[in-house]
Amino acid sequence: MDTRRDFVRKMIGGGVILMHPPTAKREGTLHSGPYTIDNPYGDVQWDKVKYIPSATHVHVESQEKFDKIYHRFGLRHMPISNYYPSAPTYPIKSIRYNQYAIQWNDILLKGPQAWASELPADLQAKLPFQLGDFIFKNVPSDVIVSPNAEHHSFTNAPLHACAPGSMYSSGNFDVHDDFKTKEHGYGIGTGLPWETAFRKMIDQLLFPDAGGITVNHPTWSGLSFDQVVKMLDFDVRVLGIEVYNDTCATNYGDPGLGWALKLWDNILGTGRRCLGFFVPDHTVGRGKNILLAPSFTEYECLRAYRKGAFFGALSGSGLQFTRISLEDNELSVAVNDRASIRIVTDKGEAQKTSGKEVQYKIPMGTGGAPAVSYVRVEAIDEGSEQIFSQPIRFIK
Fold first, then answer.
1. In the chain, domain spans
2. Which of 20, 45, 161, 219 is deepest in the core (most CB within 10 A)?
3. pLDDT the model gives residue 33
4. What CATH number should be reported for the domain whose range is 43-91+141-395?
5. Distance CA 322, CA 299 (A)
6. What is the residue-averaged pLDDT of the chain?
């Protein structure tokens, strides 16, 4: 039977939970020994790793949008997160116009509940829906598209969530209720409690140890701290929150709607695992997750998300972490260009240095355990590119 620690290692990808001191047994509960370390970069081979630009939340509805995301925005791993319906664009080359609408022909046109005859003449003329041409006819070989979708309209929270790596579908095509689907009892989204929908997302993951669920734009959505932590506590495959969402930061007149940095630190301060995602959403502007994968495959990209082996970037213009390591309670960080490097813990800003490298000694408290619950790193260069590491946690 798996121990709790074995379960956590499997669910987050393995190799990131390290026992301390080094002589502690590999088997046992999560809290054996003075403390444990959750280091998402623990097995990253920095001299060999591939840097893969990705986004857990990006809408790509057309070949034109795909070309912009690929050429101008530079994504090479795309878990496309379309909705209406919230269905995976996967495999991408198989997706056709009206693919998700034709199944409604029988509902609208046949049977005792059919209501097509009640629709305006111009809409009746569009029925029955016909399967159209392929949407994405030019997909380069150096891009990986993974299943994903943006799920919404939950019954018990103002939540939007993505599930990179999951084949789960929800909702329907009739976003504006033109065809009166809502009027006849069909919701445009999940129509489910988030707990039920989360279980469906998890059950339909392509790989049991890769991918997971993200809580989208929590500030814009108006999610409370208590709501978010309840979602994180639901399952270890609920990976974290969007710390930056470019659409929310640029389209509503208040940049703060796109940021959840304070919420992220507040959650991390409780000791919880919460990864931070940086996404464009609908824009071709800012927000990327730079995956650190040993090879460029779909599995390794999704596994990097599960493990937290990635860092966030606002513009993805070139500033990168080239080392994040923790040895003998000393954090060592290097970037590829001169930058202002900031170390953050649950106590606030712990250190700020200009240069290409920094070392930070983890402060120790009583009982042989660290005096902080986590540490993360930010760096900003002269061109205002800003990158964010994932947290390294100290679990007491």
1. 43-91+141-395, 96-133
2. 161
3. 59
4. 3.20.20.140
5. 23
6. 92
SS3 content of the chain, % helix, strand, coil (to 5): 25, 30, 50
Neighbouring residues of 261: CB distance < 8 A, sequence distance ≥ 6: 243, 244
Burial of 75 by CB count in 10 Å (0-12 exposed, 13-18 middle, 19+ buried)?
Answer: buried
Q: Confirm whether pTM is higher than 0.85.
A: yes
- Count other C-beta atoms under 10 Å from residue 140's C-beta: 10
* Cα–Cα separations (whole angstroms), residue 133 to 49, 67, 97, 141: 39, 18, 6, 21
Q: Cβ contacts of residue 319 below 8 Å, gap of 6+?
A: 313, 335, 336, 337, 339, 379, 380, 381, 383, 385, 386, 387
Question: Distance (Å, rounded) from C-alpha 113 to C-alpha 107?
Answer: 7
Tell me the C-alpha distance between 186 and 92, whole Å: 27
Q: Where are the beta strands (DSSP E) in 294-373?
A: 310-313, 321-327, 330-345, 348-361
259 bridge partner residues: 244
Rounded Cα–Cα distance for residues 64 and 66 (Å):
5
Please spell the DSSP secondary structure of 138-152, one letter per residue: ---TT-EE----EE-
C-alpha pair distances (Å), 147 with each of 165, 300, 353 = 5, 14, 40
Q: What is the pLDDT of residues 210-267, one digit of tens each?
A: 999 999 999 999 999 999 999 999 999 999 999 999 999 999 999 999 999 999 999 9
Look up residue 218 and give its two tokens. Answer: 């929590």
CA atoms of 322 and 215, how far apart (whole Å)? 28
Displacement of CA 271 from its chain's centroid (Å): 20
Preceding omega of 112 cis (within 30 degrees of 0): no
